[in-house]
What we know:
The chain is of the alpha/beta class. The protein has helices at 14-25, 67-76, 111-118, 125-141, 151-157, 162-177, 186-198, 213-227, 273-276, 285-292, 329-332, 357-371, 428-443, and strands spanning 6-10, 29-34, 45-47, 54-56, 62-63, 82-84, 89-93, 99-103, 206-209, 231-234, 238-244, 247-253, 258-259, 263-266, 296-306, 315-318, 325-328, 340-346, 380-393, 413-415.
Amino acid sequence: MTNDRDVVIIGGGFAGLSAAVALAERGYRVTVVEKRSRLGGRATSHVDATTGEVVDNGQHVFLRAYQQTIRFLATIGTLDRLVFQDRLSLELVGPGGALTRLSAWPLPAPLHVAAGLLATRGLSFSDRLAAMAFGWRLWRRGGADTEGLTVDQWMERHAQPASVRERLWRPLALAVLNEDPALAAAAPFANVLVDALFTRAAWSAIGLPRTGLSALYTDASQAFIEHRGGRVLTGQTAAGLTVTRGRVSEVVLSTGERLGASWYVSAVPYINLPELLPSEVQLGHIAFLTSQGLASSPIISMYLWFDRPVLDRPFVGMIGTAWQWAFDRRALLGRSSSDGHIALVMSAAGHFITRSTDELLDLALAELHQLFPASRDARLLHRAVVKEPHATFSPRLGSDTHRPDQRTPLGNLFLAGDWTRTGLPASIEGAVRSGYRCAELIAGGGVGQRGA
Ligand SMILES: Cc1cc2nc3c(=O)[nH]c(=O)nc-3n(C[C@H](O)[C@H](O)[C@H](O)COP(=O)(O)OP(=O)(O)OC[C@H]3O[C@@H](n4cnc5c(N)ncnc54)[C@H](O)[C@@H]3O)c2cc1C
């Protein structure tokens, strides 16, 4: 027997779990169906078989501006597992050890960032003036002038010198958008910059988990849902939705089991959505656009264990190299140790995704030796590579028109996921924002304004 408070949610990543938690909190009886044996989707952890240590499928970075994510983690009781900087501070190392450092100043917004940009270490005075002028304009006008522009074109419009772009904006755009700034739309980058730099708690802009991702949110979400009478079914694939008279009437699992509910949320990646939809259902733009309009952009991560520490800070950007960011896992997890464990990240990694582990390792070691001399004497003990070919959708210019609203033409089916229309690039905050939006729409009886 179903009642109007039964909800089936397909997909157990940030989007599905945040929708489930928000609905369970409101008294709905939710069933989460996740095809993998563990929850978390593209933000998950596993135990490395050699070292026995928990590693993520890639280092994830949070922003203080991730307000919905912060609310979600507070609800499930794990917010204290995220550690935020006291004050925004970004360091990037380039060839010859050249350091670029941007730190917010303890001043009210926007002066904290304006002063920080004007004082950026490693840039010439004229570069700093140009960066500050850009920051000031961003504060005044946001992304109002980004329409139809790539990140590179937007930077040109704002006369950002090549050195500022290479040493500051390009590394940030790659990290935020997971796409080459020459291809990526400027609008979502502007939205993240405005949120990250100018929202109220921006001094402490960057947060990193001091646990693996599963301990950060999947385990606690499952406990939260089950404690409120819901179910979490892992290792169960939703094979399709049955649609009757314009509404979903059940989800058929690959085992043949059928789950009926009043409301359904698809929180699967865009590449998986068409599998769920019966061919006779003309979801029009959704079916067409998800298969044709969006493309994936890969991320490659590498975990390296050394016999000694090789980084002297918790995380650092790398300029002019294929690997882009390095994280000291021991420091992030709050462990002091005589050995070293780092995570390297390569975004927009399309050119490298077919490279072998050995090739990627050689590249990583060469680049580490070049930028961090301490690594040259360190002995490598173990390495692990995680390739995510479909890490995020590519936010190329025009991709936003292919991102559907959370509402669908089927009155009781909603779409969650980082790829739905959220105004943000594919990110944890976008995923959670979409999950909360679905929960609000369901709680509101399925009607509401379009757009997250
Ligand atoms: C390596 C890497 C690094 C990243 N770094 C950052 C970062 O630093 N900061 C940031 O904000 N974002 C980052 N991201 C992006 C972030 O991880 C994603 O935006 C977010 O996790 C997406 O969540 P989601 O719930 O929308 O999708 P997913 O996590 O993909 O969840 C969808 C789930 O649906 C399941 N599923 C699919 N089909 C079915 C089916 N038929 N039946 C049942 N289940 C199904 C999948 O198994 C999956 O678990 C990163 C991503 C990657 C891969």
